[in-house]
Write the C-alpha cells for this entry.
Amino acid sequence: MHQVAPEKNVDMYNGGGSGIFNPRPRKAKCKNKESLVDFSEAATTHGIYYVFERNSRPESKFFWVLVCIALVVLALNFIKLMYDDWRLEPILTTVSKTGYSVSK
C-alpha cells in the first residue's frame, strides 16, 4: 500500500493540512468568527468594525452592539414613516421631453 507524505511546512495540529493529515481540524465556530472579523474590517457599515474589533474590551463591544441595534431600529422607523406617508399620498414623477439640446 502506498502512503502519501504530508506537505512540507504544514502544521498538522493547528488547522493546517487536510484529510488524514489534519486529525484535529479547526472548529467551524472559529472559522465563522474569523470570517465575521474579516468582514467587519472591510465593511463600510458604521459601527460593525467596532463590534468585532480584535483586542477590544467587552464593554466597548457591548456599547457598539447597542449603538448598531439602535441605529437599525431608527432607520427602520424612518423607512416606515416614509412608506406610510407615500401610502397616504402617492406621488408619481415623470420626466417630459424637451426640445432643448444638452449643450444649451
Summary: Residues 95 and 101 are 15 Å apart (CA to CA).
